[in-house]
Design brief:
This protein has 88 residues and is of the alpha+beta class. It is built from three helices and five strands.
Length: 88
């Protein structure tokens, strides 16, 4: 999930409420990092509600679901090194 804002006018259908969404308005793009074809444009408000309801996994949770229960190498390293944020 990352912020998205297009400059060309287009409309998408929000996967959460099923209503139309203008690309010019502020919204978010949700997609697994390894498969851009699955990306969906969604209202920021709908995504926030879905997250509060626990219906939208974070990117890490999503990838875990798609690839199985095995945590990625970087995820395991992060757990082994508490307090060390990568890249900071
Ligand atoms: Zn919506």
């Amino acid at each position: 999930m990352r912020p998205a804002q297009n400059l060309k006018p287009a409309t998408y259908t929000c996967p959460f409420c099923g209503k139309q969404l203008a690309s010019m308005s502020e919204h978010v793009l949700i997609a697994p990092e390894d498969d851009r074809s699955k990306r969906r444009h969604a209202h920021m408000e709908c995504v926030r509600k879905a997250r509060q309801a626990g219906r939208l996994p974070t990117r890490a949770e999503w990838l875990e679901t798609e690839r199985g229960p095995q945590p990625s190498l970087s995820e395991r390293l992060r757990r082994l090194l508490p307090g060390r944020e990568s890249g900071e």
